[in-house]
Amino acid sequence: MGVIVTNEFRNGSRLELDNEPYIIVEFQHVKPGKGGSFVRTKLKSLKSGAVIERTFRTGEKFDEPDIEEKNMQFLYAQDNDYIFMDTENYEQISLSKAELGDRILFLKEQMIATILFYRGKAITVDLPLFVELTIAETDPGRKGDTASGGSKPAKLESGAVVKVPFHLQEGDVVKVDTRTGDYIERVKTAS
Predict the structure, then answer these.
(1) Does one domain contain both 110 and 149?
(2) Predicted TM-score (pTM) of this structure
């Protein structure tokens, strides 16, 4: 485990605070006219997903969290447990719905995702930035709806609901940003 100093802060940097792992979402170095400079940050808990705001004095040091990452395949969901398998040794782990939070909306069976382990215990999944999912349900487009005008809700195979252009239909495969839940583009048209 290393140490991270405030002047080394970058978006995506990880630090340990109050015995919990966090990732820096946003930071700003502030140099007031009077008094010492400081760093204003937004931190996201890697365990709960909650975002907090904290201010630190310039030069403060923090331990980097004991985080290990493993690429694992999502196998299936059973009750509140989501089962993942290490593709190298076939070892299986489970994460609860609470540990995964909103990320479950973009999980698809057989998908490879990065599992984060904190001090040897699986705590959450780090999804790819973009996933491709099939539209399971959406209202049919109506005559006169154009590709550029407006959007409608569409339920994806994973259960997520995203806004898509009117001309898309059930069976189309779409690319979605997992950070925001926004539709990016149609990847494949329903056959």
Answers:
(1) no
(2) 0.74
